[in-house]
Write a structure and sequence with these properties.
heterotrimer, A alpha/beta, B alpha/beta, C mainly alpha, A: six-stranded mixed β-sheet, four-stranded antiparallel β-sheet, globular, B: alpha/beta, Rossmann fold, five-stranded parallel β-sheet, four-stranded parallel β-sheet, 9 strands
Amino acid sequence: MSLRLDKVAVRYGRRDAVLETTLELPCASLVGLVGPNGAGKSSLLKAAAGLVPHSGAIAWRSKPLTRMARLERARTIAYLPQSAGAHWPITAAELVALGRMPHLAFGERLRAEDAAAVEWALERCAAGRLAERRVDRLSGGERARVLLARALAVDAPVLLVDEPIQSLDPRHQLNIMRVLRECAERGTLVVAVLHDVALAARYCTRIVLMAEGRVVGDGAPEHVLSPAALARWYGVEPYVARHRGEPVVLPWRQID
Amino acid sequence: MPKRKMLAVLAAAAVAAALVGSSVAMRSSGARPGSPADRPEVGPPRASTTAPPATRAGPLPTVASINLCTDQLVLSVADPSQIVTLSWLSADPEESTLADAAARYPLNYGSAEEILRFDPDIVIAGVYTNAFTRALLRDLGYAVVDIPPANALEDVETHLRQVGAAIGRTERAEALIREMRARIARHRRRLESAAPVAAVVVRPGGFTVEAPSLAHDMMTLAGLRNLPAEHGLDRWGSLSVETLLHHPPELLVVAAYRSDEASLANAVLAHPALERLAERTVTAEVPGSMWGCGLPGSLDAVALLERAADEARSARTLRTSRAAGGVP
Amino acid sequence: MNGAALRAAGGTAWVLLVPLMLGAALLSLVIGRTSTGPTLGFGDAAIAGPVLMEIRLPRTLLALLVGGTLGLSGAALQGLLRNPLAEPGLLGASSGAALGAVLVFYFGLAAADSLVLPLGGVAGSVAALGLLYGLAGRRADLVTIVLAGIAINALAAALTSLALNFAPSPYAALEILFWMLGSLADRSAVHVWLALPLMLPGWLLIGAAARGLDALTLGEETAASLGFPPARTQWLVIGGTALSVGAAVAVTGVIGFVGLVVPHMLRPWVGHHPRRLLAPCFAAGAALTLLADVAIRLMPPGPELKLGVVTALIGAPFFLQLILKHGRESGG
């Protein structure tokens, strides 16, 4: 069971954001999509989510996404955008419940299984006690957890998240990464665009490094995020170590 | 999902029902048993004539009027016992020359429900009276006669005949027409012996008299040359003050309308150039209500204009004699 | 579970809204207006039938349908634009309809038969929609659509003034101006049947967009990922609004502020989910319009006040208060 991207390219007007890319992403993994700014990470993710037009084919379990009905596709791929928010002052529980929409038909109300999924998603993201709180009154970290819970509530086999931990303080960053890792361990394919090399190295089971629109590294974090790669693509020299059995990759010094 | 299908079927049924209902309603509207066939036609507005409804034999049909001009036509032509209601504007002296007469009757504000309660045999309206009201009255089975605004003095005759025919007062209408013709003939005779006077009429809002129009005919009959019309006017007859300065008139006629009330329309009349012109020109005032509708009484305005023309002629004679000889 | 609590609150809204709407409709049926002022009942036996069936009933039905349309489309537009200050007139459907009707006057088609007037209005609103589609394009984002709507409104207003300038007579111009102020007076059953075939599909289109509106709460990208592409929701709401509001305006003239005010009144009860607001806003819009129309009939004797004027008198202060609150909350 995998998500296969076959010669996928994304072009905005005359600019090539992503050059022909072929990737096979199996389920039960946390894939970190990393790279410098403008590498095309978000564009590739959006193409997989069906949000931007692209050439090439994307298939889940050998079924092309274009051949799926709208709601079937929505149940297959859950997406959490970078700048997510809620426009109306609804409660966290109501917001998470919106994630169940792909499972409901026209005019159908939330069923017991949907309510259960909402509760489960909130618990997973340690946001259970936020359920009745208004979303616009939550702190940044709380809101990020609630929004992630919404994505989890879809209960899709593929979860795509775009920079889920930006502007969060360290505690919440670790929290979210932990949740994503747990999702992957339960069988979901999680693809996360990440800027934080250290966290990507630590939590992801696989790293796809992109630069200038193409994949320049693909594999285990220690191999892809090598000092040579970081020097070449990020222009930094890292501090590399191991702590309690987990890799530590910290960008340390700027290379001129 | 069965729910979805059910909703779709309901929706389709509702749309179908609506379309069927609309076609049925449109076909059957206006065809009411016992009412005169009054099929609306498409085309430029024109008066529709219907024969007096075959109702109570003997007494004349009762009539309601919902338009200022038709109110006054009805007041002129109808027998007082026929008139059931007139519009409220006709009792306002600023609007109507027959305000006192109109005030004796119940007044209406032009809605179909009011007319329904008065239950006249025939309704007279203007072609620009609320189209919805007229259509609804026709749907309710009333005979509605539409009278257009008068654009010439001859139109007054036509309208008098139309109203007379509609309410069974053809003799009265013809009598009024004969009277009018006699008066017009008298005015025309005077024209032969008097030189026309160049005049400008100033109306609220900066309008003047366009040609052809009822007011233009009235001016001509009174021996006045309509200066702005000779020098070209825009579509609605807006007065160009500049034209006035190039071609100063011998007579300035001000159509007074609600002059004691503050209004932008009247403020236009206070243009400094106009005021200076008024100081050195013979000026006359004619009530606005006399210009508004085409009535036999419109000839009263002609008489007023005639007197003003005489004044202007004597002023002209004075000027030319001063210029020629010296001060006597 | 909060869902249950909210459903209960929404239920309370219906318990109040349905009787309010029906009560207002009943008032609209029994209260009339004559030369001497407001009247109760239908007059004597001879005219009672026509008064009820030909005058009161069509007017009541039309108030219900038009008011409901305005409330519904207001809720849909506020959901679509994620802005509580949105109104049906925004897209140009109202001004397009008004222009269409005015042009019918100009060519002299309307004076002979009042049916042609609404048909012209509907053509105008459909033309405005076509122009919006052409300007904004199929994949346009909301900002482009709003700007196109502003452009269309400006164009329609200019063309309307131009047409007024060329009106056949000052009386025609006056008639047009009064019509544009919005009124339900002396409309007949024919107008109900004329507007309904276009209003109904309009409502259905808006209804089809309901879930998409909920999805848009989380932004356009999330909505697309949930299976509700914003473009689809957008055009459903726009098409539905143009059809239903265009038909309404074509028959009654421009009645404003109902679509703005009604969703705000209901949000404290029904919640903020756009989908849940749609049906209650229909009922509340109908009730509000009916009550405003009844209020007109209760005025002292004189020419009847225009409905559009009354709704503006209610709506404009409400709108001002909204803006003030909005400004205060965003740190003004």
